[in-house]
Predict the structure.
Amino acid sequence: MNIILLGAPGAGKGTQASKISDAYKLPHISTGDIFRENIKNQTPIGVLAKSFIDKGQLVPDEVTCKIVEDRIEREDCKNGYMLDGFPRTIAQAEALDKIAKIDLVINIDVDHSLLLDRLCGRRVCKNCGESYHISRLGDKTDCARCGGELYQRKDDNPETVQSRLDVYNAQTSPLIDYYAKKGILFNVVGNTTPEDVFEEVSKKLDAMNK
Ligand code: AMP
């Protein structure tokens, strides 16, 4: 099964992706993670991506689409995969249509008033990418999943977060309609806990797998 996780920054895509990936054994492909890895390794793609990511803007479609195309051709994607943070524009969705058949688009819908706090209070594992919110961390400084060190993403500051939300509203939210029209959209309310959201998502995936 090929799945897309859609939702505003801070909706909980990464958190759900990690749960779905563990439970359904699907490779988790996050374009944001791929860019951050490239930035860490100072590759040419990383240098280019950083100039956009630091401003809360999207990396150009041609670069992003090529990365995804190469990634989904790999052996581990033969039996399905889950895209997190891609597509983010109609042009990316159209490019994806040419190379893949998507079975389900899970749209995590969260009140926009919650997103700023979620993103600014987010801490991420340096090792496995798992996300946490400071309100649920207590005095823990390492990842419950793998023990890795937690850090705050450079683009999780109020100013950059606001640009990311503006970009989402202008360029990514039209994808909800795009996939609804194709009849493959599944909406889930994301204002609740990660566990509640995952329960809803699992019901849908289990029904589809029967
Ligand atoms: P994320 O980790 O999904 O929040 O992505 C972090 C940043 O990487 C975004 O704010 C964009 O600058 C960039 N990025 C990730 N995915 C895409 C995409 N599909 N298209 C363009 N830029 C992206």
About this structure: The beta strands are 2-7, 28-30, 81-84, 104-109, 122-125, 131-133, 150-151, 185-189. The first strand starts at residue 2 and ends at 7. The CA atoms of residues 143 and 187 lie 29 Å apart.
